[in-house]
Each structure stands twice: as structure tokens, then as C-alpha cells.
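Hey, can you fold this?
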Amino acid sequence: MKTAKKKNVGINITKTGISFRLWAPNADKVTLIGTFNNWSEDEMINEKDGYWHYFSKTALPGQEYKYVIYNKDQKLVHNDPRSIHFTTSQGSSVIASSNFDWEGDKYVAPPISEQVIYELHIGTFNREDPAINGNFSSVIDKLDYLSELGVTTIELMPISTMIMDRGWGYGIDYIFAVESLYGGHYSFKKFVKEAHSRGIGVVVDVVYNHFGPDSGLDLWRFDGWGNDDYGGIYFYNDWRAQTPWGNTRPDYGRPEVNQYILDNIRMLMHDCHVDGLRVDSTIYMRNVQGHDNDPSNDLPDGWEILQKINKVAKSINPNALMIGEDVGSNEYITKPISDNGTGFSSQWEVYLPSVFRDTLKTDKADQINLSGVLDMLGRRLNNDPFQRVIYLDSHDSAANGSSYFSETISPNNSDSLFARKQALIAATLLLTCPGLPMVFQGQEFLQSGSFSDWQGVDWKKSDKNKKIVDAYKKLIELRKNVLTNSKGLTGANCNVMHFDDTNKVIGYHRWSNGGQGDDVMVIVNFGNNSFVNYSFNVPNDGVWNVRFYSTDKKYINESKNELAESYMAEHGNLSLFLPASTAIVLSQ
């Protein structure tokens, strides 16, 4: 990949005026128009390297501007690709300062082994009127709720300006601007500061595998040039441009496109204080067809830009949580760059939602297959379980023809007793098996239906299913070892010590270093039979305390099952009352 001298592109506000710099290598002439010159054309200086520059002594922050590009007989009027604010997505660029009073924000994220992620969509997470998008302010109103739930990290679906006025966020128009309907840059920074003040980190989903779609995309043939039917300077102009979302894959081999993407990383990590990034569909950045082990379609420039993204992010914040959505489970995505990997901290384990659904769709023993659960407990990348982000629901698995877990296993009745029991088994597995757990918005109170960009989270269910929320709070508390009696759940070790395929019971041991307050045993009865005196192996003799069980009356109103507070293990064996459809967490 070629390199070029890094230039200060976009606007730069100084004491004496404002500098404008634009990349348009095929332009014959470029002019600047705006409110500061009554929309008349001030001709920019050709710097002879593809860039055009103008310094204005009259332009002021808050004023609007655009660029006029001449290429032969074409006259093109464009917004600034690096603008951080627009009047509207179809309006004008606005001169905006990136200054913000962080009031000494010094947030430091906990170790990855102690993190619990909560994925949410700004537009739907908290809105009273279904016709109006949610925004950063409305999400701030729920930060205390998330803090009480115990999550450590919020993962935001994309927040960059969208071509449509409502969407999931993956139809990116301008990567530097924050969606104005969400509140723009200032509101976003306020949101990050408020989250940090509550001990919650913020990870942002970014989209560099494609821009657009091409229809209505301002970057398309930006300076009038494009090869055949392809998109011009920001994109590949051959078969490498082709993606499932249009011919809009950025040209990772162009130094100027590299800088465009990497400067966006710098802005988010440095100017906006985000604590990490989730990079969307990395497999489509490194392979034209989105295939793993497919050399004929590989993009070496794409692999290199992924490495550069991680280098830049971690040069700003060495503890940045960098997540790749690769779907291929390729270990090199999370290998260090020094070992030819791309250097991500972790990657989404996309097959897991189907494991949860397939295993827990029934409680009838003869229909339950536990092979997926066994695989889930044993899977790791580069011998590190925390290189896997594990989840029950996500924006993908709860949509795209599917629905939330509780809706899938109990259609049109996600609050049923069966749905609640199975949901708590799933939650126990999620928060006690090895990996970096993620909860999707509303999952913790059995959100019904499917995720969409028009249906808001039903917060009435958080009251209706408060006991389920309480169970999540307790499981997250255990996962983080808040009471110092479950350190094993932050450890890398897992051993399936008990497997009863006839009765569909699994028992697994989690530990960090082992010993008091560390060793954790999880016993899960997937079937619908209860056992008065069920025996299974444990790693140590002595007293084992029941820290949580999913059919506790605290969490399931209809439960009549009561476990003792503790049980004595002898000769490596422990016996207890094991209710049907129950997950139990014990520690010493």
C-alpha cells in the first residue's frame, strides 16, 4: 500500500481565520461557497497533489459552506466529506468546532475479562413517540438504569450521518458527521461524558466495508471522475468495488482514502473519547465476496487497513476494546499485528444465537441436542476465550427474518412461563460461559417481536418483567465478581465436569487461579424433569454456596422450588435438588 504525506484535510479553525482543504485530484477548478461570501464562488488554490486549499479571514464557526467542483463540462456542488455537522443530511456543511469541555474525563475501562457489553440503537432505545427518533439525550435518561443493571460497556450501533432519516445506521453518508437526528457531535460527546461519569465505557460501531448505497451518496464520483459504472476517487473502480450493498467498497489502496478512514478513527478515539470500536463486516473489507480462505478474492489492502485501524486506535488508547465482525472465526483477526494478524481485541461469535435457539426451543429431553452448548463452552480463539464476543440477541439475530430469543422460542407470547424459564437458562449460560458477553437492548426484560428501526423498546416490559431484570442484575454481578465470590467467571478456564445426555444436564467448572472465592460450578438442567437428589462431580470438597438459580421465586413467580443456601461436597461429589429447566451457579 502506498503512503503519502499526511495533510490537514477539511477545515481548520485558527485565530486569524479558517483554512479549507479538499481532496479532488481530477478537478479542473474548485471554488468555495458559503454564507460568509454570500454563496459567491471563491476560487481555491490547486496544491498540485490532488488537494485544493483556501484560507478565509471572514468565515466564522456556525456558518454554512459547500464546494463547487469543475471537471470539463461538469459542475458539481458537494458538501465537505469531512464535515462534522450539517444543517440536514441533504443540506449544507456547517463550520463546527470540535472543542468540548470534558471536565477532566479520565475514564479507564476494566479489563476485558470483567466487561459486559450492552448493544443499543440510539433511534429506538428510548423514545416515547414511535414517530420520533430517540436521541443521545433520551439515552442519557436511561444511563442510571444501565448502571444499575451492571453493564460496563455500551456498544452503539452506527451513529454517523445516514442517507435515510431513519435506519439501522449502516447506510453511511458522511463518516465524520454524527447523525443530526440523534443530536450531533456535541450531544454525542455529552453522552460519552455522562456514561463515563457512571463508570460505563462507550464503543461505537463503524462502517468502512462500504459507504452508501450509491444512490444519493455525495461521495459518488466526487470530482467528476469514475471508471465505467464505478464510483470514482473514494472507491475501487473495478471488480473490487462490488459488495452486497452496491459498488461502494472504499479503495483501501489509495493513501488519501486511508487517511480519510484513519482520521475518522482519530476523531472518535481522541476528540470524542470513545473507548473502542466495533468494525462492521471486516470479512467484506478483506475479501470481495466476504469469504474466509478465498485467496482469489482477497484484498491485501483491506487486511492492511484493518491493521492500521487497530494501530491508530491503540496508539491513542492502549486499552481500547477493538471488536471485529468477521463471521469467519479466523484466528488471525485477533492475533497481534506482529504475528501477521489484524490486532483486534475480540470478534463477534455469530453462530451462537442459533445455538441458544436450537437448544432451548424445547424442554423435552428426546428433542434436545447439547452438542452446540458443549462446543460453545470449549470454543476459544488463540487459546483466549475473551477473543469471542458471545451473545443471545443482537441487531442481526433479532431481525433479518428472525426475532428476539424469547419471541422465537415462544411466538406471540414472549412473557410465557416457558419463555421466562428458557430465557433465564440462556442468560445464565451467556454470563457464565467463557467469552466476552453482550446483551442486546430489551433482551433483559423479554422484548417481543423483532428489532427494527421504527419499533422502540417497550419499557413497560421492564416493569412487567422486573424479576427477569433482577436475575440479569444478579448474573452480571456474579460475572464481574462484584462480591469477590465468583472470580472464576473472569478467568479463562472452563472444564465440563458433568455431562448427562439422557437427562440433558451439563455441569461445568469455571476458574481463574482456583480456590476459595474463585472456583465456580454451573449446573444446567435443560430438561423438564426434576431430581430430588442429583449428583455430579465438583473440583473440590467442602461447602458450595448457591449464588443463583434461575427458578428461584425471586425471578419466577410460579416457582415452588427452593434450594438450600449451601451444599456439602465429599469425595469430589455434590448432591442437590435439581429442578426442571433450571440453571444453578455455585461457588466456594
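Oh, and this one too while you're at it.
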Amino acid sequence: METNEKKRKFNFSALYDRIGLLLKRMPVSVAMIVGLATLAWLDINMDDYAAPYQLIAFGVVGLFISVVAALWLEDRMPQQALRRHAATVGAVLLWGVYCLFLPSFSDRLPNAVLTQIVALGGVFFCAIFFISFLKRGQDRPYWKFAVELLFQMGIAGLFGMILWGGLGLALWAIDELFDIYLHHRVYLNVVVACLCLFTPLWFLANIPSQEEKHNPDYTFYKLLKILGLNIILPILAVYMLILYVYLASIIVAWKLPNGWVSWLVSALSLGVLAVINILYPLQLQKHRLTLFLSRYAGLLILPLLILMSIGIIRRISDYGLTINRLYIVLLNIWFYGIFLWLYFSKAAHIKWILISATAIALLASIGPWNIQSLAKRTVTSDVNRLLEHRKLVQSESPTWVDSLDTATKRRIIEGVNYLVRDYGPAQIQSFFADSIDDKRIYSLLESVHLNHAAVEADFHRWFSFEADSSVVITLDNYARCLTLSWNHYGNSTNGVAVSSVENQLVITALSDSSQLVFPIEDHVVSLLERDKRHSQAPIILNYHNNLLIINKISGTYQHNSSEHISIETLSGCLLFSKQ
């Protein structure tokens, strides 16, 4: 009995020590976590409050920056805690200066900026794994530390989910057993406490200490050997065989590869690099298969990397440069370099796999040479060249635009749409002689004869609508209501089928084949030009006093064909008139 009491005291003491150590080691990171949790709590509990995107980006990426700074500085200034924390605050505030220039709401954030933020967040997250091991001869402690971090992430996530599930079940029991109504916000607050507060704090508290992380002694778990050698490696071998068969088939047929092959080769290459990292201790033990894999797997992949390069060139040639394609180009170049480096260095220093990738991603995402700026300049220059540097004027009939060939028009449209989607409408002002303020992109392009319908008769445009507000209907004139939920795979409720005939929406009762026909084309055209940032009420259609209320619809619209509209999903309700 006395021993158990001592054990309990020791465990509580160890817990308090761990919390105290975390506050001393990473106070800035703790403050960032508390700040993010507070933002989530305010967003849940205050009706008129929406967390500004600036603060969300600052908090998430700033948290990663604070952890990286704390881990790096504790090795450089072990006895100067105040200076360490001040430098960490400075690094986070530097990121805050960037965030000040971001839009307050995410729906106004261009995709290019979002991509840059995600890339920088990924860079600083990956840096957590290696920032303490930049000196030579630290591959063993690096491997041990990286494995321990991944393990602690999994444990923290598991504990957080268990805590959330347990407390959520307890709240549900109170609600059901004692008939005490609990607002859904109570459950969401539990999510914030468990997953936004407890989980990251638990993870930070269990990051190996300064002494532990540089200890070269490690334990290679048998589970990792099974995972790397017996599970992932055979899958990658099958994957490589499939890609080589595809390579042989396109050589025999003498045709260009599919542009999507780049993603498949990238997945294979990343998988091989992951296995090399997982099995690193076996390499130190001179395990033959691991030694061969670490050094020569990259050479086996080189022909597939050439295939990837050709696929990238084809994709860029067909569709032009974009941010994603530039990142893929960079990834392809990095694959060549890292596999050749592994061969010539005999895979002696695996930490440089992650370090080199992170450094390249960082350099590609900052400065005036960053990928986002390069893509914008390239696409803008391409559109200007296709327009022959002439300005578009909305008030005049652009006869010279009509004389352009279809391929040129299509490239212009794709370039303009890409600039609007990824950089915002202001980026296409340079193509117009007059102001385009408050102009919708589809109407704008149509006014200068550059809409898709004018270019290709068979061009398909995707439309999608989902109501985010309600409508009030008086039910006195209706006999019954039928709930609809249908998709083109044949799944439906209440025995109805949905189709479009002569550009009208047709609802057929499967029991007696009776049909209701509703006009839909004008609404679809309107959907293609609607600003989705504004509130969207349900679509209401009328047929012989029967009402169809559409809450959700999606499909494709094809201009200048006998059947413009193809419906893929539809949800709503049908009100049958008493007459």
C-alpha cells in the first residue's frame, strides 16, 4: 500500500515537472496554442464573431516557427533562457508582419497566397524534425528524434481523440438520462479543449529534451522493419513494375505519356525515400537489401523520372504554367539530385533528404523569385502575347478578337480564368482599356467575345449550387410534400428519377412513370455567373402550381448543343398542388 502511494506521488510529480519544463522550454509555443484555442472558442460561442484569416494563419504557422526557434536556440544558448525566448518572439513577430497584409476573410484570399502559406507552413513543420541536427555526424540522433516525434504525434492524437470521445459520451449521457438540453456549442467546446488545447500541449510536453535528443543510442523496433521491408517495399515494387510496363507501352506505341504520370512517379519516389529513412538502422547494421535499396533504388527510378519530365513538359505545353506545375517541376529536379546524391554518397547521411527538400521549398516560396510570382508573370506575359499586346474594350465590338483562331482564344480564356482564380480579379485589369471593377468574370469575358461558349460548341462547364439560407412557403395550397435526394449513379429516395430533356428538369415517378417538367436552363446559366460568396437561397421552380424547392444541384452545362444540361445530383423537396 505504501509503495502504491509513493508511485502515485511520483507520477503526479513527474506530470507537474513535465508541465513546468514545457513552460520554461517553449513558453511562446504554449501561448500560440492557447491563442488558437481561444480563437476557436470565440468563433463557436460568439454569434457575430468570425476568426480573421490573418490571425489563423499567424497562429498556425507561427506555432511551427516558435517550436523550430525554441529547438534551435536551446542548443545555441542553453544558459540564456531570456534571450532565447526574446529571439523566438522576434521570429514569430516577423511572420506576423507578413500576416498583416493578408485579407481578413479566407474567401477573399487568392489561391496563390494560400498556396504560399501552406508551403511555408509545411517548411517550418518539417524543420522541427531536423533543426537540432544540422551539424555533421548527427544522423543517428536525427533518426531517433524523428521517429520519437512521429510516435509522440500519434500518441497525442490518440489521447486527444479518446478524451474527446469520453467527454462527449458523458455529455450525451447527461442529455439523454437527465433530460438536460445541452447546446451543440457545448460539444464543440469539448472538441476545442481536447484537440486544439490538450493534444498539441501533450505533444510539445513530450518532445525529447535537449539532452535526450542528442543521445546517439537508439532502439530499432521490429514493427518498423516489418512496415518497411514486408509491407511498403513490396507495394512499391508492384507500383514500379506497373510504371515500367506503362513506359514500355508508350515506347512501343511511340506516343507521349499521360500528363498525370508525374503524380504517379512522384508517389513512387517519395515512397522509396520514406523506406530508406525507416530502414536506416538496418543500413548501419550492413543489411544487404537495405544497403542496395538506399544506394541503387534511385538509379532504378531514373528512367521513370525521365518519363515524369516528359509528362510535365506535355502538361505545360497543353495547358500552360501554373503554381502546382512549377512545384512539380521543382520536385522532379529534386528527385534527380537526391537520388544521384544518395548513389554517390552511398546514402551515408539520410537527414539531408528532408533538409534539402525543405530548403528548396523555402527558397521557392519566398523573395521576388518565388513560384507564385513566377507563375503570375509567366501567365500574364503569355496572355499579353496572345492578345498581341492590344487592350480589350467592353463597350466596343471586338472584331479583332473574333478573328483569332479557336486554340488561341482558348489559351487566353484559360490564362485569364487562372489569374482571376489564383490571384484575384485585379490581375487581369492590365488586359482591359476600361475599368473592370465589380465585373463578374463570365459576363466580362462574354462582353469581349472570349467566353467559353463562343470558343467551343462542345465545351463543358461544371455548375454546382448548395443553398445556405432558408425560404418560407405557405403549405395551405399543397396536398403533400415529397423529399428528394438523387444522383446519377441511380441512388434516389421516394422512388423518383431525375433527368434533363430539352434543357428542362424532368422528375419521373418510378411507380407509374408520371412526370413533372420544370424550366431549369435560366437558373443554370445564372449559377455559372453567381458570386458564391453571397448568401444563396433555395431555387424554387413551378410547374402547374407544383413547386420544386432545390437545396442542392450539380451537373454540367454544354453550350450550342441540343442538350445543354446534364444533371448529376439533386436534393430538395417537391410540393404537390391540391388542384
